[in-house]
Amino acid sequence: MTAMPMQIPLRNLPHDMTVRVPNHEAAYGGEYLDPVEIRHVRFERTEALNPRAYALADGAQGRIWIDAANSEGAFEVPKGSKIDVLGRAEGMQAASCTAYEIAGRMHHWEVDVK
Questions:
Q1: What percent of the chain has pLDDT over 70?
Q2: Rounded CA gap, 92 and 64, in Å?
Q3: Nearest Cα to 100, choosing from 7, 15, 2, 3?
Q4: Could you report the per-residue pLDDT of 47-101, keeping only the tens digit for each?
Q5: What DSSP line would sit under the chain, residue for residue?
Q6: In angstroms, rounded to a whole number, what is the distance separating the alpha carbons of residues 97 and 95?
Q7: Of these four, 8, 60, 66, 105, which has the most CB atoms within 10 Å of its CB?
Q8: Among residues 90, 99, 50, which one has the least CA distance to residue 114?
Q9: Could you give the CA distance from residue 29 to residue 6 in angstroms, rounded to a whole number?
């Protein structure tokens, strides 16, 4: 039996977010799919992150951590998606999304938002 990779504990995932993924099949640009909720994520504003420990996307306002196991509805958020977290209704957009695996299994995603 293979041990599961560590998960980000729920106590460290206090936020919920809503994601609107760009609709690449739409006839016109700027259209988005229906909103999808991801529960149990963590959002940290840029100023709360130690700049030497984190390399953020240019112009990022912060980073969101999405755990593959403990974040309900978790998925890799595409660049350009509109994001509402902490009541900032679609006030942010995904600048990048980086996937992290441990022992060949998805562990979490880090989404830089601007």
A1: 81
A2: 11
A3: 7
A4: 666 665 566 666 668 899 999 999 999 999 999 999 999 776 557 999 999 999 9
A5: -PPPPP---GGG--EEEEEE-B-TTSSSTT-BPPPEEEEEEEEEEGGGS-TTT--PPTT--EEEEEETTTSBT--PPPTT-EEEETT-TT-EEEEEEEEEEETTEEEEEEEEE-
A6: 7
A7: 66
A8: 90
A9: 40
What's the one-letter identity of residue 110?
A: E
Query: Which candidate, 76, 73, 69, 71, places its Cα nearest to that of 111?
Result: 76
pLDDT given at position 89: 55
From residue 58, alpha-carbon distances to 78, 79, 84 in Å are: 17, 13, 20
